[in-house]
Amino acid sequence: MASLSKRPWGLEWRSSVWFVTAVVGLGITTDLLVYSVVIPVLPFHLEELGYTGVSALTGWLLFGYSGGIVFSTPIIAVLSERYNSRRWPLLIGQFVLIGSQVMLMEAPKYWVMVIARVIQGISSAVIWVVGLALLCDTAPAATIGRQLGLAMSGLSLGLLIGPPVGGTLFKSFGFRAPFVCSVIVTLVDVIGRVLIIERGEAQAHGFDPAAPPVKNESIELEKAPVEVSTENVPNNADVNRTTTPSVTEVTVQDATQPTPDSPAEKITLMGVVATLLRSRRALAAIFISMTYGIVLTTVEPALPLHLQDIWHLNSSGVGLVFLAAVIPTIFSSGIAGWWTDKKGPEWLTITCLILSSPWWGIMIIQKSLALFLVALAFQSFFTAGVVSPLTAELAAVSRANTGVGYGHVYGAFQLAYGIGSAGKLFLISSVDKVSSVKAGPIIGGQVYEHVELGWLTICVLSIGLFIVCTGLAVSCIGEEPLLARALRRHKKRVLERTSTAPAPTPVLFDPTLTH
């Protein structure tokens, strides 16, 4: 073990679970900020460059971002598990993100802008796959849902901040201002990633951020002639491993997962794919993640059209409605993660899917805007709450399958969500009307524009998909799914009733009855 005198500066807080959570959450916020800050800016810039048909051109620029995510995620997932370091891929991803923003800002031609957006998508995949894997490496298994939920709050925060900041900066300072802002935010994120000390490195210096504090009762029971420090549990754990197991050692080992740099069996990419395909938990979580992406990007572009058609809202009114949809999701992620740690991912996944469905139905009603806003807020709260238990479930899949790393499962998560949302194709036709946000994903935009009851169809489609996902969650999510649990208890009750039932009275044979 490295000498404690050579410890890196700020070892405890730089490797702590909360600092890593904050940095990963900032990375997710930065990613969504970079994605969304240019949405109100690109149409103007394309017009200034002399392009016509800016609606379709803008749509393909945004689509290129999703395409970069989808095509790069499998490669990034494999590479992230091939090497022990998480920090260096994250730093490289952030510098690539900065370069892509400068490239997009100074692009003289449309094809250069497309390449820049694809590169942004690639860096986004690095942030999500490697960032979530780093967080799972650091956080104890007992609190991994809470930490993932808090980090996931950055998704909603980035989407909430990006468009209004981009529009305001563009109006006040010109086209380059939103890009300069996003570069500054990315540089702040880079500083956080430079400061991070990974768990393996921290353990080499005698500190394990995932180890829980040792309780006084455990120390008293141990009665060992070794000075125990509640801040430096791993040193004590190392001593215990060379002697007879103690109460303290059992407590520490039960509460933490294996170290991320410990030797692990390596399997091929096809072996990882085969393992995930055999896992009901992984397949269910991946399918629900893809469904979440489909539902989210189906309703996003149709919502402004619906608000304009029914309640005649302008762009400012639509923006306020989007606040009602986004703000609840900032809180739902953290709450969902905390509850996942308490009750398990199966309970929360099913609860969120079931509770979100009625609000989708209420959103069909066109009589009251106030009722619609309330329904939208609750629907967004419960729908977004699905993400935290799904990411915690995938972390459990990784821990349960040798050779399947966190990078692999979060690569599958990012790929599924990317496929579900890759149809997002914004067609911006006018910058001063609400109809400017007019088009949408391949499913949502086409359904709303070409089906007579488009909004009704979208809401019913979302309810139907969530019903299917609820069935999958009941039968597949969790170490012991709720369906298997119910069947086991039913079988147990049947056996108990059978064992306690009085035995039938034997009938004696009477020869006289045969005559």
From TrEMBL:
Cellular component per GO, a single term: membrane
MF annotations from Gene Ontology: transmembrane transporter activity
CDD domains: MFS_MdtG_SLC18_like
Regions of compositional bias (Polar residues) in chain numbering: 233-259
TM annotation in the entry: 16-39, 59-79, 88-104, 110-136, 148-165, 177-196, 282-299, 319-340, 347-365, 371-397, 409-428, 455-478
Record domain Major facilitator superfamily (MFS) profile: where: 20-488
Sequence segments annotated as region (Disordered): 233-261
Name the UniProt record assigns to this protein: Major facilitator superfamily (MFS) profile domain-containing protein
Source organism (scientific name): Meripilus lineatus
